[in-house]
Amino acid sequence: MPTRGNLPEALVQAGIALLDEDGTEALSLRRIAARAGVSHAAPAHHFGGLPGLKTAMAIRGFQQFQQHLMAARDAVPADAPPFQRLSTVADAYVRFAGMRTGLFQLMFDQLAASDPDLLHTALGSYLLIKELCAPFVDGRPAVAVETAVWSLTHGYAALNLDRPRPSDTQVATSALVDALRLIID
Amino acid sequence: MPTRGNLPEALVQAGIALLDEDGTEALSLRRIAARAGVSHAAPAHHFGGLPGLKTAMAIRGFQQFQQHLMAARDAVPADAPPFQRLSTVADAYVRFAGMRTGLFQLMFDQLAASDPDLLHTALGSYLLIKELCAPFVDGRPAVAVETAVWSLTHGYAALNLDRPRPSDTQVATSALVDALRLIID
DNA sequence: CCCAGAGGGTTTACAATGTCAAGATAAGAT
DNA sequence: ATCTTATCTTGACATTGTAAACCCTCTGGG
Q1: Which residues 6+ apart lie within 8 Å of B21 measured at CB?
Q2: Domain spans of chain A?
């Protein structure tokens, strides 16, 4: 379905779908274009080239990422202890990386390219982590706690990318929760 | 200098040099072969193809990585507190990632491919971290502490890949050291 | 002495990729 | 009605990884 009238949107969706289904190495400009039902040169007109399309996909990825984390945060009861909320979101972080490996890698690859729009979108996820860390900054500088939590979670996710996690068990990331506890209190 | 008589070695060296000088996107089988002074089909004879050559490069990368970490460890005085030794090596970890970004990315990309030789080589670096963590496992399970330190350090390195660090200042990674302290004691 | 075979490299060919230039097509504006 | 502009296609090109066929050069057995 070519989705005429909104080709950029269709291309981003096709690219992410291709990434989810066939992995990073199967991603190519021509395949994305074919999937969106247009010629291989069409993407250049909207994104300049493959790099541009990839950053657009990364931006969309960070939006979905933040949405995923927020859903996890909102799923924990309002009267639950703050640490449970933090660890649940961290678990969601790792789970996202495990379930959507290709997109996750693309996101943080492109992040190094320092596109302003991309950075702005990624900031949203950071602010979410920041908010969850707030209850745990006692006298310490907030940035230190946030960096610790963010780095720990991201490192855990990155190092376990080869082991995709099932979507039902919480046990998989218990080591991460333990490590978070070490940092927090 | 074609380095006749040991082409596999020459190819790995050429590939890593290309990675260090021109970055990930400039890495190609044909360029590596040209740099080693052979035809573009020669690598296939020894490594089967580009994937094989890349895992060989990743193995060499982990060897250099471990060597880099060990050098940092041995540079701190023998009577220094264990935490200083740990934080110094963690600093070296981040510095390696910042200075040799392309190789670092390749290493952990290929790690997901689960090549036995590569895993065995990478294990050496893990054992080094493990050894440095030993003084800090009080009653806690050792694996938890190691995973925490390793994940935190790796995450910090990965998230700061775009900001290459100067080789002289220790200040850059003070946030990491603070976070490590949070974990350790 | 010679020559058969094998390992190491080259040459050639091929399909796939990203990018660019030129053209086609349709919708609006003047 | 004609011009313009955005959108997309077509065609071409250089570069890439891979595979097959060929060619050297050395070594070991007769």
Answers
A1: none
A2: 1-48, 53-184
- Got the DSSP string for B74-113? HHS-TTS-HHHHHHHHHHHHHHHHHHSHHHHHHHHHHHTT
Tell me the CATH class for B1-48.
mainly alpha
A11 CB-to-strand D distance under 7 Å:
no
pLDDT of residue B48 exceeding 70: yes
Q: How far is B101 from chain A (nearest CA, A)?
A: 11
Q: What DSSP line would sit under A148-159, residue for residue?
A: HHHHHHHHHHHH
Number of neighbouring beta carbons within 10 Å of residue B134: 13
A142/C29 CA-to-C1' distance in Å? 57
Q: Which fold has domain A53-184?
A: Tetracycline Repressor; domain 2 (1.10.357)
The secondary structure of residue B167, as a DSSP letter, is S
Q: Please name the nucleotide lying closest to B39, CA to C1'.
A: C10
pLDDT score of B35: 97
Q: Is the CB of B46 under 7 A from strand D?
A: no
Contact check, Cβ <8 Å, B151/A155:
yes
Band the pLDDT of A65: cuts 50, 70, 90: very high
CA of B28 to C1' of C5 (A): 34
A158 vs B155: CB contact, 8 Å cut-off? yes
The amino acid occupying position B122 is A
Both tokens of B128, joined, read 């080094």
Count CA atoms within 13 Å of residue A100 on its CB side.
Answer: 21
CB under 8 Å to B170, separation ≥6 — which residues?
A: B91
CA of B26 to C1' of D17 (A): 15
Residues on chain A bordering chain B, Cβ-to-Cβ distance under 8 angstroms: 108, 111-114, 141, 143-145, 147-148, 150-159, 161-162, 175-176, 178-179, 182-183
Question: Which SS3 state, helix, strand or coil, does residue A24 take?
Answer: helix
The CATH number of B50-184 is 1.10.357.10
**Mean pLDDT (whole number) for B136-165:** 90
